[in-house]
């Protein structure tokens, strides 16, 4: 204790500042109320709009300057409840069908809280969180038929995992010295191949790696939306004849537009024959491995050199929990390991260990993503998660059935390969009404599909990922679609009528 002398008398110094609660019991009570409120929020998800925009007065609250003085926790929790919680993305709701968003689980929420409490930095060092991540890697290797010593690393999502996989493939082709010498010292221009329906992150990865998207060949697809393997083989042969250096093929397990699966087995054959790195972007579709009935869709995935996927989509681990799995652990490590002095390994103590996660990717500061994944699989089990995946596919087939029953109004824009249904109004050949319907559904808060473009036309895209979605929800969607179609059609007719009247009024 520091001495402070006033009129020759010693008085206690003020306590040193810290960030723990002044009153632990009051903090405990507020925390319990916050947890109860979030559990109620999840329990009653159907009672609220799927999505609603934050009004201007709420947005204005987030223009406040940096707070410099403490605020009461109860007041901040109240602001969360009124200013933040009502205006989230909406992917908890069973009628959120936009893009491919996982719905999360109450168990995952608890695990995220516990991970935050531990506040473990999972970049490296010798602590139990890394053992949890290694166990998830072992589970993933077993699930996809990779060798038991395959390496894996958590990242933000499949976009990041695809980029890391491309860098591993680059090193495998050019040698580890490419890290120091760069691409200019390589022998021949690298070229990669993927489906014309592949996610745009593959193109972005080529650009970020310095190879250039000009050297990414987008291979045409068949009627199912899968990469044409004959066109792939021809493109590789053509590039070799030009003196270029093919190095990577990225197959897709569940395309972003329609959920189509490339022929992984045949692509694996081509890569083995041509001595190319074989990567699979399985952002959501790879997890069909959890279902015995759907697993044949990824036959051959066990032959991939690397695989990227998201636990936060069909496994519903809270965001974010992307993952990269690599067959050759030494190749993976040599792509990213850094011999910096501050990363020195000791024979024992906190700096002990051989391979740390920072040796498998660019991140040194990393959160404990593995814990919420570990909780999700421990509490629910792989079989139940797989059954929920099958359930969403059945809901997509049910939506397809309901649309076909009203074929005078709606038409399918693509085959329903799995859990994604693309469709539109027959009276909207240019897709403008389809776009308006989606906006109307979202703004009314009754459902949240998205749009995509197929064959040059904007169509409605319902990606059914949520484990909460039931047949009753699909029936409610059909009613909402009818109402929105009527609303936007009438609005278009009014606009057309007003436009037709303008010349007459001007002439008068």
Secondary structure: elements and pairs:
Layout: E1 3-6, E2 9-12, H1 24-43, H2 56-61, H3 73-84, E3 96-97, H4 106-118, H5 128-144, E4 151-155, H6 158-174, H7 178-181, E5 190-195, H8 200-208, E6 216-219, H9 229-241, E7 245-252, H10 264-274, E8 277-281, E9 306-310, E10 322-326, H11 329-336, H12 369-380, H13 382-405, E11 410-412, E12 420-425, H14 432-444, E13 448-454, E14 457-463, H15 471-507
Parallel strand pairs: 3-13, 5-6, 5-7, 7-8, 8-9
Antiparallel strand pairs: 1-2, 4-10, 9-10, 11-12, 12-14, 13-14
**Range of strand content:** 5-15%
The biggest sheet, with number of strands, parallel, antiparallel or mixed sense and barrel status, is:
7 strands, mixed
Tell me the number of strands: 14
Shape estimate: globular
Descriptive account of the structure:
This protein has 508 residues and is an alpha/beta fold. The chain has 2 domains: 110-380, Type I PLP-dependent aspartate aminotransferase-like (Major domain) (Aspartate Aminotransferase, domain 2), CATH 3.40.640; 384-495, Aspartate Aminotransferase, domain 1, CATH 3.90.1150.170. It is built from 15 helices and 14 strands. The chain has helices at 24-43, 56-61, 73-84, 106-118, 128-144, 158-174, 178-181, 200-208, 229-241, 264-274, 329-336, 369-380, 382-405, 432-444, 471-507; strands spanning 3-6, 9-12, 96-97, 151-155, 190-195, 216-219, 245-252, 277-281, 306-310, 322-326, 410-412, 420-425, 448-454, 457-463. The strands form 3 sheets. A 7-stranded mixed beta sheet has the order 4-10-9-8-7-5-6, with helices on both faces. Strands 3-13-14-12-11 form a 5-stranded mixed beta sheet. Helix 4 (106-118) packs antiparallel against helix 12. The relative contact order is 0.12. The model is unreliable at 504-508 (pLDDT under 50).
């Amino acid at each position: 204790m520091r001495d402070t002398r006033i009129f020759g008398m010693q008085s206690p110094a003020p306590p040193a500042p810290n960030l723990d609660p002044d009153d632990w019991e009051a903090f405990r009570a507020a925390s319990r109320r916050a947890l109860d409120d979030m559990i109620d929020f999840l329990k009653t998800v159907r009672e609220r709009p799927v999505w609603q925009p934050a009004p201007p007065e709420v947005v204005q609250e987030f223009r406040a300057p940096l707070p410099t003085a403490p605020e009461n926790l109860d007041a901040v929790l109240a602001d969360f409840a009124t200013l933040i919680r009502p205006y989230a993305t909406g992917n908890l709701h069973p009628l959120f069908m936009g893009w491919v968003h996982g719905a999360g689980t109450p168990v995952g929420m608890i695990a995220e809280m516990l991970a935050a409490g531990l506040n473990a930095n999972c970049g490296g060092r010798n602590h139990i969180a890394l053992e949890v991540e290694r166990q998830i890697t072992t589970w993933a290797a077993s699930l996809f038929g990779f060798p038991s010593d395959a390496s894996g690393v958590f990242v933000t999502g499949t976009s990041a995992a695809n980029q890391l996989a491309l860098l591993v493939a680059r090193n495998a082709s050019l040698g580890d010295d490419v890290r120091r010498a760069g691409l200019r010292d390589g022998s021949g221009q690298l070229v990669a191949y993927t489906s014309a329906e592949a996610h745009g992150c593959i193109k972005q990865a080529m650009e970020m790696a310095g190879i250039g998207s000009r050297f990414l060949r987008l291979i045409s697809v068949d009627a199912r939306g899968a990469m044409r393997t004959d066109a792939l083989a021809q493109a590789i042969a053509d590039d070799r004849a030009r003196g270029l250096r093919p190095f990577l093929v990225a197959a897709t397990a569940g395309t972003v537009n329609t959920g189509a699966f490339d022929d992984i087995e045949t692509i694996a054959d081509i890569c083995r024959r041509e001595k190319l790195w074989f990567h699979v972007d399985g952002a959501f579709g790879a997890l069909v491995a959890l279902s015995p009935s759907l697993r044949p869709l990824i036959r051959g995935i066990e032959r991939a050199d690397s695989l990227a996927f998201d636990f936060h989509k069909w496994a519903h681990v809270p965001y974010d929990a992307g993952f990269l799995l690599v067959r050759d652990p030494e190749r993976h490590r040599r792509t990213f390991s850094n011999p910096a002095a501050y990363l020195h390994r000791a024979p024992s103590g906190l700096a002990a260990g051989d391979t740390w996660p920072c040796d498998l990717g660019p991140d040194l500061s990393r959160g404990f993503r593995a814990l919420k994944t570990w909780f999700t699989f421990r509490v629910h089990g792989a079989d139940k998660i797989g059954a929920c995946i099958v359930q969403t596919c059945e809901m997509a087939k049910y939506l397809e059935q309901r649309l076909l029953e009203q074929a005078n109004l709606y038409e399918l824009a693509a085959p329903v390969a799995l859990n994604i249904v693309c469709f539109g109004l027959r009276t909207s050949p240019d897709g403008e009404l389809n776009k308006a319907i989606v906006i109307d559904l979202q703004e009314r808060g009754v459902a949240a599909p998205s749009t995509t473009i197929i064959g040059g036309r904007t169509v409605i895209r319902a990606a059914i990922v949520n484990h909460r979605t039931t047949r009753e929800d699909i029936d409610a969607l059909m009613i909402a679609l009818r109402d929105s179609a009527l609303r936007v059609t009438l609005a278009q007719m009014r606009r057309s009528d007003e436009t037709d009247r303008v010349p007459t009024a001007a002439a008068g």
